[in-house]
Amino acid sequence: MTDTARKTLLITGASAGIGAACARLAAPDYDLYLNYRSDDAGAEAVKADCEAAGAKVTLLRADVSDPQALARMFDQIPRLDACINNAGIVAPTAPVAAYDHDRLRQMFDVNVIGAIMVARDAAAKMDGPGVIVNVSSAAARLGSGGQYVDYAASKAAIDTFTKGLGDELAADGIRVMSVRPGLIDTEIHAKGGEPGRAQRLAHMVPMRREGSAEEVARPILFLLSDGASYMTGSFIEVTGGR
Ligand code: NAP
């Protein structure tokens, strides 16, 4: 790849929230593969904004928890310089006593198995130095008792995976990091049955406010950059101090 060639970046979960903010920020510098599960209108809107900023954009509709869909998705990606492994879900707020097998299966299929398979296949598309940023959560540290312990545990798995994969790939020049957002103002809370959750809990944040998707996207873009060239196998927190 020449110095002037644009880099290629895959973002999973790019039709909304943090993934969409990452795409819009990255568009001036990267050609983009934007994955999403079902929100065609959201994905098209992100694509239009990114193309207006100069990016070549390929939309890839695929459920990251479906191995066949993921295989078809990666068939459409010739090579990658970077991946933001962001797709994730919450389930409705409930104590562990109320969990059933289906809930846990879905949570871990998407947030853990899907993310690990995306990272595996993204790394295989990197034919030189590369970067993978996994989107974890401060929940990995907080545990989220009474809210969604399953989600917190899934994100703790991502942090451990980040350390292990970072160790495995360091000698190949591929860095692996994770970001732990705190309370961020996106639609994920409403999807989990708690619209307004970020605003409602903002008083628990030392900065006394929720974060925006762009405030998470900026540190993620930093981790992709040469400014983070000696960072791998670790994580940064983006939590307003929480
Ligand atoms: P969001 O606004 O709900 O967006 C989620 C994105 O992920 C959407 O593009 C969605 O696609 C996609 N997605 C969900 N399940 C998918 C699947 N199985 N396959 C492919 N794509 C899938 O959520 P967000 O707040 O931006 O969250 C992004 C990441 O940040 C998640 O990993 C989340 O756990 C993490 N995070 C968020 C917060 C927060 O407070 N918002 C805090 C900590 C960590 P469709 O809409 O097309 O289905």
Average pLDDT: 97
Q: How many strand units?
A: 7
Strand order of the biggest β-sheet: 3-2-1-4-5-6-7
Number of domains: 1
What is the CATH topology classification name? Answer: Rossmann fold
Instruction: Categorize the overall geometry.
Output: globular
The SSE string, one letter per element, is EHEHEHEHEHHEHHHE
CATH superfamily: NAD(P)-binding Rossmann-like Domain
Low-confidence stretches: none
Question: Could you characterize the architecture of this molecule?
Answer:
The chain is of the alpha/beta class. It has a single domain, classed as NAD(P)-binding Rossmann-like Domain (Rossmann fold, 3-Layer(aba) Sandwich), CATH 3.40.50. 42% of the residues lie in helices and 17% in strands. The protein is built from 9 helices and 7 strands. Strands 3-2-1-4-5-6-7 form a 7-stranded parallel beta sheet, sandwiched between helices. α1 links the parallel β1 and β2. The mean pLDDT is 97. The site of NADP nicotinamide-adenine-dinucleotide phosphate has 33 residues, from α1, β2, α4 and α7.
